Request: fold
Amino acid sequence: MDKYAQKVLDEVKAKNANEPEFIQAVDEVLSTLGPVLKANPQYEKNAILERMVEPERVIIFRVPWVDDKGIVRVNRGYRIQMNSAIGPYKGGLRFDPTVNLGVLKFLAFEQVFKNSLTTLPMGGGKGGSDFNPKVSPHTPGKRCSDAEVMRFCQSFMTELYRHIGPDTDVPAGDMNVGGREIGYLFGQYKRLANEWTGVLTGKGLSYGGSLVRPEATGYGDVYFAQNMLAKRGETLEGMKCAISGSGNVASFAAEKLMQLGAKVLTLSDRSGAILAPEGITPKMLADIMELKNVRRGELAEFAKKTKAVKFFAKANSWRLADKIDAAFPCARQNELDGKDAEYLLKHGCRLVAEGANMPSTPDAIAAFVKAKIMYSPGKASNAGGVATSGLEMSQNSGRLSWSREEVDSKLKGIMQSIHDNAWEAAAKYGAKGNYVAGANIAGFVKVADAMVAQGVC
Reply:
């Protein structure tokens, strides 16, 4: 690693010793920047790395709410406003028991480069709470009711609203924050601020949302994979694909892969994973999406009613099929480890396109890079969601509504630009074909140049 980058990484480790995910994310980026730092001494002179790894603002607050039994509950809320050099903070809200300061700092750090790669004027941020809408606080085996989720969201936004705005910070959804939660959050913001603005993205179509936004991350992941294959004169037609997750990202990645002639073999959730040896069909996928989005159930339930799939309790998607051409990790961070990577490579995998944020562990990434397969990091290939959120912001600002075809066309163009910029940056700095280095460098340079131009701030 470059001497300057190593010095900053050592400082990050010392200051944030109890935040392993954040340290991992910083290490992954800084380890690729050596050639850029050497060619641009002004970055060290202006302490760009020191400033880039430190959030501009960290907001932590309590979220009191009342459950259906009249019991007062208290959760913790966060917003990490990481970097606003190229635009207002932009990044999702995550509601999950695993949410803590280190996880959100890693996500916000990744978001800075991801948003830079989209070519849209958006800075990076992330937020959320340790609230779990999937578990009722008073009835074992049940989920929070809609009324409980609404009361939590209203309390959460009552504090958050004073820190956000269409030109300051524009949150969106993330894990466990879908259309229902965004609706409740937006309604409370509108009530408190007494204004209708595009302050949240991922909204419903009836109140300012964008067509293709729910599909965008999954579709964008597949579009990026298409671009990687096109560089080699190949297509997705006939490829056997393993996907992890079964939420929006995974489901719409599966849908797009099927449309392009690929065969989807696996999906997963916290209950386990399903394997469909003959491929998941569009009808099966529709049933899974209804189960997850409407009834909010688990794949174990689906597998009991579907003979065409095998269910593996508490398993992931990576070691189930005998032949896997491509893998799409679309669940959560560090879900694909070195052993999984070894299995995938041994069973024919030649493309990995990350749909989640940092889903591959460092040893898995090292294995993919060493094998010289087509491997794209999440900050590049899952940027379609935030890119379409940026398009939603543009529509809201102009009081416009674009057609599905217009938005999808813009999304395809953005994903191709991200691919091409990463490819060209890697080639320019001696790492041709390495999308990890290319994405980090391309995302970094835009933000770093903006920071230099704006002085010490």
Notes: The chain has three domains: 1-53+442-457, 55-195, 216-372. The longest strand covers residues 72-83. The domain at 55-195 is CATH 3.40.50.10860 (Rossmann fold).
